[in-house]
Amino acid sequence: MLNAIQPYILTFIPIFVAVDAIGNIPLFISLVEGTSKRQRHKIIINSTATATIVAILFMFIGKWIIRFIGITISDFQIAGGLLLFFISVRLLMPAAGKVFSMDSHDKDAGVFPLGTPLITGPAVLTTTLMMVDSYGMFATFVSLILNMFFVWVTLSRADFFMKLMGPGGTRAFSKIMYILLAAIGVMMVRRGMMGVQL
Questions:
Q1: Highest mean pLDDT, choosing among 75-89, 130-144, 172-186
Q2: For residue 130, which of 181, 74, 179 has the smallest C-alpha distance?
Q3: SS3 content of the chain, % helix, strand, coil (to 5)
Q4: Sequence spans of domains, the chain
Q5: Distance (Å) of CA 96 to CA 31, 99, 172, 190
Q6: d(Cα 25, Cα 29) in Å, to the nearest integer?
Q7: N or C: which end of the chain has fewer CB within 10 A?
């Protein structure tokens, strides 16, 4: 039983860390402040749909793209791992964060910046491709859909999570996620270096 669900667990966790659904809540609340319930619901749908479509498209064609331009999986693992590591370090720095100058009432807020690059950004794209290579397309697809469903739930119940965790708790949770993301980046670099043909 455990062996059957292990690939799903091992793909779900890294994608969960990369998506950082909880960490996106404060920005989401700032973007939808003053909007109607109907507008807020539309932004949630748009952001989740955009993030899911972008991630799935890259999951299916990403490997073809890197092969087309002559990049090996090991190359991508090393580059992707370094990217994840530096993104995590940057997000861990004081005053660094996911700041975007835009009108909070922008009708496209669900697409940009929420859908991409906040929910599905470089970290999610890189992690997804690595999970496909390590655990297969189906397990990665299921884990990705589950994560996007969790994103929809957290955004729909954003006020509840903010009250439950508070601003400080949300920030602390995000920092822990960034540390885990940095560790995943190091792991990817290590696996990539092991696979390089010298």
A1: 130-144
A2: 74
A3: 80, 0, 20
A4: 13-193
A5: 18, 8, 14, 27
A6: 6
A7: C
